[in-house]
Model the fold of this input.
Amino acid sequence: MTAEFGAYSEDERAKTEALYSLVDIEGKPAGLHIVSTILNTPSIRNVFIFGEPGANKSTVMGQLVREVVVLSKMKIAPTIVLFDEVVKDCMEEFGHHTTWNGQVWTEVSRRLQERVETPSADIYSHRREVKFIEVVAVHKEGAARDRGAKALKYFAEAARKNSAANHPPESIFIAVVADSRSQKQTGEIREATLKAFDEEVVEMWQERFGVTAEGLQGIPPKEAGRILKFLVGRMAKAVDILRTRTEMYEAAVGYLVGLEPEKRQRLLSYIRVPSSTQKMSRRQCREYVLKAIHMRHYVYEQLQLDSSVAFVVFSPFKKRSIYWPADMFVSQVK
Done:
């Protein structure tokens, strides 16, 4: 079974644009490859999508979920596992996450791991359950606030053991390199959403930010706005996005500075950023490239994942006409 991107109408393409515009750090299209890998590999049970907050992970994941369900003719049964949901549950027990130490973040990873490994009870036998797991992971040496990094490490080790035993892959990993413009945009949308009246949210998303909340059409504006505020309220705030963005940029700079000059230059020449970077400032572009190199190091050297199951990708920035698949997340939130 193969994804046929060319079969879509222009309107349908717009609703999968975030997915199919993904490019790997060598500049090659990645979205179709990812979709085809999931469809054509029956052993795959987990799809991890990770990176910094505000990196466009939820948009990519929601579009990916919808696409594989449609193209598999409903033979794939998706379950979404959200890192933010685990964090919110832990906050009820341990207080606000800004006060947590490394021990609590380890517990967050443990609970995330438990959710991934617990099979759903309501999947029909003729359908293949695939869990789509969104993870915020901080790959910084010695970081106490490593978010879900320990859970990722656990599943990466399992993937390596699986490969060493010549078993077919059970998990694939999609690392999204954060574009600072997407992070700024995401933070602004979330802050504005929480401040707006319920009945204003949907129109504000469309008029002010050019974002359509997919799947909420036909729902009264006040109810749709309440749903979006609930979802956004469980995600990282603008200040948290900025904090993590700064932390990861510092880690990327530290990694590059520590390299031999020849290797550093080779890596800088290796990265092929998407055309959307043409309107970036020089500093923004530098940050993007350095984070891509650092993410490559994390995925292929620290986690030691093979390129057959791990993708390091750019999600090109888009200012308007964005389709956010809200309906993919509503049923997953308790």
